[in-house]
Amino acid sequence: MSPYGYKTRTLLASSKMPFQRSLQPIVIPRPILESLSITYRRVPLLAIGKDIYCDSSLIISTLQEKFNILPTSPADKAYEAFGIAFFDSVLKVIPSAMLTPEGIKDRITIFQILKHPDYPSLRPSGLAEVRRKFHIIETEFLAGPGQYIGGGDSFTLADLHAGFAVDFALKVQGLINEPGFSQRDFPRIYEWIDKWPKAEFTEISPEQVHKTIENADYSAKEMGVDSRDPIGIAEGTEITVESADADPGAHPQKGKLVGLDGKEAVLQLESGVRLHFPRVGYVMKEAKTQ
């Protein structure tokens, strides 16, 4: 159900490379991740050998750099920002049937919007906000019927960044059944989404995940730790990493700092895996000793 999982799968589908997937529980705990010393809260995660990448922004950029999967353009970062803002709007229109006490309790630490004292009252305005963004895609991003963003005839990184949550909004959130969101209202969007690459993969068990990663080699090059980095933490120091938009202390990831540059931070975990985080959207601190 994760739109960010859909985004990652779609990029892998575009690559034509075979890959494996293991579904994780919708709510925590996630035993297979815990067995790998991973306490980071969000999914998806991408393992390439014994290197595991967190956050779809880093996952997408890493896959692009390694395999050059989709055509790019100078405007890609702008489309990425639009797509993230679109997903934030979609969070205001979650159907009441999905807002179970268990679901809210599980996600309230990472989706601050759920703390609103009268969350259901946001939905009408949220629907109007999402509909406006649909209109922008329909009339400004998609130049004509049957075309991709920018008027081309092939799927690009801009399409992936701008539209990864559109299918989620329509089908999972049920906007396809809301007035004003039909195919007649947005014919270009419906045709566009229907043409996206479809992922094919092998489903594997949690036990297979653990065994595969445990027996793998590291795939990423050693980068060392930039001594001039503003966080000023030395290589080998135990640190914690947390999402900047989550409740402080709710889901810290602890590990030994073994790599740091302007793009990512790399932690060596007790399990032996190396966990990669992007530098944007995360808080890194020296771990407190007991």
Structure description:
- By secondary structure, the protein is an alpha/beta fold.
- It folds into 2 domains: 12-68 and 208-286, Glutaredoxin (3-Layer(aba) Sandwich); 76-194.
- It is 35% helix and 15% strand.
- It has 10 helices and 10 strands.
- The chain has helices at residues 3-15, 31-35, 56-67, 76-90, 101-107, 123-141, 157-163, 166-172, 187-194, 206-214; strands at 20-21, 45-48, 51-54, 202-203, 224-225, 238-243, 253-260, 264-268, 274-278, 282-286.
- The strands form 2 sheets. Strands 2, 3, 5, 6, 7, 8, 9 and 10 form an 8-stranded mixed β-sheet that branches. A two-stranded parallel ribbon has the order 1-4.
- Strand 8 (264-268) and strand 9 (274-278) form a beta hairpin.
- Helix 1 (3-15) runs parallel beside helix 3 and helix 4 (76-90) runs parallel beside helix 7 (157-163).
- The chain is globular and about 55 Å long.
- The mean pLDDT is 92.
SSE layout and pairings?
Layout: H1 3-15, E1 20-21, H2 31-35, E2 45-48, E3 51-54, H3 56-67, H4 76-90, H5 101-107, H6 123-141, H7 157-163, H8 166-172, H9 187-194, E4 202-203, H10 206-214, E5 224-225, E6 238-243, E7 253-260, E8 264-268, E9 274-278, E10 282-286
Parallel strand pairs: 1-4, 3-9, 5-7
Antiparallel strand pairs: 2-3, 6-7, 6-10, 7-8, 8-9
Helix pairs in contact: 1-3, 4-7
And the CATH topology of the largest domain? Glutaredoxin
Task: Please report the distance between the alpha carbons of the first and last residues.
Answer: 38 Å
- Number of H/I helices: 10
Order of helices and strands: HEHEEHHHHHHHEHEEEEEE
**SS-based class:** alpha/beta
